[in-house]
Amino acid sequence: MLVSVLILALLLAVLQVAVYVHVRNVVVASAQEGARYAADADVPSTDGAARTVQIVAQATTERTARGLACTSAEETDASGLRLVVVRCAGSVPTLFAALGDLLPVRVTGRAIKEGG
Asked: Are 100 and 94 in contact (CB under 8 A)?
């Protein structure tokens, strides 16, 4: 009986790690896509954050998207290129709703700004 409980706990822990890695990868890809969207010459650079949250909500859940705070702005790198940078930070839900949002995530997406 005790072995069954330990195996179940181990299985749930592995499942939680897999879900966390998946959600983190989705947020990374969404931040990159938000930066690419805002890098378009006809789109304000500040629109990248909203686009990122929208993509996260579509790819995962609204709850995951609400757990993120994203910002986007133009920056200049060391070589003088204008970049759109989307930064997201927050936490993602755990498999056990009672535990809340314990798992932190912090990602950055960058794209070269079009136009002059």
From this structure: yes
Q: In which residue are the tokens 């929208």 written?
A: 54
User: For the residues 17-21, what does the mean pLDDT come to?
Assistant: 90
CB neighbour class for 86 (10 Å; exposed up to 12, middle 13-18, buried from 19): buried
Within 10 angstroms of residue 34's Cβ, the number of other Cβ atoms is: 27
Question: Which tens digits make up the pLDDT trace of 91-110?
Answer: 988 877 666 667 899 999 99
Q: Which residues, including other chains, have CB under 8 Å from residue 114's CB and lie 6 or more apart?
A: 39, 40, 41
Rounded to two decimals, the pTM is 0.88
Contact 88, 26 (CB under 8 A): no
Half-sphere exposure of 55 (CA within 13 A, CB side): 22
Quick check: 71 and 47 in contact, CB under 8 A? Answer: no
- How do strand 103-112 and strand 82-92 relate by DSSP bridges? antiparallel
Q: State CA 36 to chain mean position distance.
A: 15
Query: How far is the C-alpha of 109 from the C-alpha of 116, rounded, in Å?
Result: 21
